[in-house]
């Protein structure tokens, strides 16, 4: 009777719950002293006390493929088939990590796809370490979230074939599950809001700078227009000076001889008198003083010569 399923237990996936464990593995469990001595006549309440005492998870190990205590308790849960509320308490328990993994693995075997995803996905946030007994008898360290990921994605775990589990997106598409909400969603939203605020601030700063540049350009244009008005229509600065110089050149006001001499008739006469004075060795007034004192002075003769020259050029004569 110790190896029989509870008569009140219902079928799971259309078969006896114990058949979810491989027959060879199940026979190895029946041969274990732990199964015969510790798992005899257990109830769901007393099974919890045994689950608290386990210190590793795993399937079979060693040369004779002995079953672990963890696997023995899984088979006992399949025999007793406790209420789902008890299994949910196993999973939500945070004090005993091996009890949590035991309840999760049992629910993975007998639960519906919807409740499997609803109760196992929150365990992704449990990063506590657990020991796993490998086939060769050695121990390895894994995390609870890694074990849960293996339950949801693999088809064989702890020497046990896992029932087929539909993909999550398939259940979401038919409306049996809601889209998964990440635990970091709030942090993502906070980071996104900060980035949006920073972007809006940068855009506002760029817009303000563009407006300031436009205002400066308008002020400079107004100042240039006022300067042109004050200069009588001539722009200030280098461009204004070049424009003014070109304007004077066009009207002949800025043209000068290359030699720098005055080319007017009066200037030519004065230049000739200065040249004669330099050749004779003195100024006109000095030669007048040194003259013989009679007749016309040399200055009068120079004026007469200049008047004769001016008459030829059609200019008014100089006064004596």
From TrEMBL:
<keyword id="KW-0539">Nucleus</keyword>
<dbReference type="InterPro" id="IPR005037">
    <property type="entry name" value="PRP38"/>
</dbReference>
<dbReference type="Pfam" id="PF03371">
    <property type="entry name" value="PRP38"/>
</dbReference>
<feature type="compositionally biased region" description="Basic and acidic residues">
    <location>
        <begin position="286"/>
        <end position="301"/>
    </location>
</feature>
<dbReference type="GO" id="GO:0005681">
    <property type="term" value="C:spliceosomal complex"/>
</dbReference>
<keyword id="KW-0747">Spliceosome</keyword>
<protein>
    <recommendedName>
        <fullName>Pre-mRNA-splicing factor 38</fullName>
    </recommendedName>
</protein>
<comment type="function">
    <text>Required for pre-mRNA splicing.</text>
</comment>
<feature type="region of interest" description="Disordered">
    <location>
        <begin position="199"/>
        <end position="303"/>
    </location>
</feature>
<keyword id="KW-0508">mRNA splicing</keyword>
<feature type="compositionally biased region" description="Basic and acidic residues">
    <location>
        <begin position="199"/>
        <end position="223"/>
    </location>
</feature>
<dbReference type="GO" id="GO:0000398">
    <property type="term" value="P:mRNA splicing, via spliceosome"/>
</dbReference>
<keyword id="KW-0507">mRNA processing</keyword>
<feature type="compositionally biased region" description="Basic and acidic residues">
    <location>
        <begin position="240"/>
        <end position="256"/>
    </location>
</feature>
<feature type="compositionally biased region" description="Basic and acidic residues">
    <location>
        <begin position="268"/>
        <end position="277"/>
    </location>
</feature>
<comment type="similarity">
    <text>Belongs to the PRP38 family.</text>
</comment>
């Amino acid at each position: 009777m110790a190896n029989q399923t509870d008569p009140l237990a219902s079928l799971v996936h259309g078969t006896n719950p114990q058949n979810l464990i491989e027959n060879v593995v199940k026979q190895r469990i029946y041969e274990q002293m732990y199964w015969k001595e510790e798992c005899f006549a257990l109830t769901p309440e007393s099974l919890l006390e045994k689950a608290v005492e386990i210190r590793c998870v795993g399937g079979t190990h060693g040369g004779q493929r002995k079953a672990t205590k963890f696997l023995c308790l899984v088979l006992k849960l399949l025999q007793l088939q406790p209420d789902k509320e008890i299994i949910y308490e196993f999973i939500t328990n945070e004090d005993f990590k091996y009890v949590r993994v035991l309840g999760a693995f049992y629910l993975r075997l007998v639960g519906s796809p919807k409740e499997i995803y609803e109760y196992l996905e929150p365990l992704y946030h449990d990063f506590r370490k657990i020991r796993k007994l490998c086939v060769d008898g050695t121990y390895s360290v894994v995390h609870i979230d890694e074990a849960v990921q293996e339950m949801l994605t693999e088809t064989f775990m702890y020497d046990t074939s896992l029932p087929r589990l539909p993909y999550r997106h398939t259940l979401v598409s038919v409306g049996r599950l809601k889209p998964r909400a990440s635990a970091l969603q709030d942090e993502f939203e906070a980071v996104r809001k900060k980035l949006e605020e920073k972007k809006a601030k940068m855009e506002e700063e760029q817009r303000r700078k563009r407006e300031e540049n436009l205002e400066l350009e308008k002020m400079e244009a107004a100042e240039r227009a006022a300067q042109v008005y004050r200069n009588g229509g001539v722009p200030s600065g280098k461009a204004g000076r070049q424009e003014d110089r070109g304007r004077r050149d066009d009207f002949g006001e800025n043209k000068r001889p290359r030699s720098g001499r005055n080319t007017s008739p009066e200037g030519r006469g004065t230049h000739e008198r200065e040249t004669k004075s330099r050749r004779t060795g003195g100024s006109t007034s000095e030669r007048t003083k040194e003259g013989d004192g009679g007749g016309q002075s040399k200055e009068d003769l120079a004026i007469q010569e200049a008047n004769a020259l001016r008459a030829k050029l059609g200019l008014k004569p100089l006064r004596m």
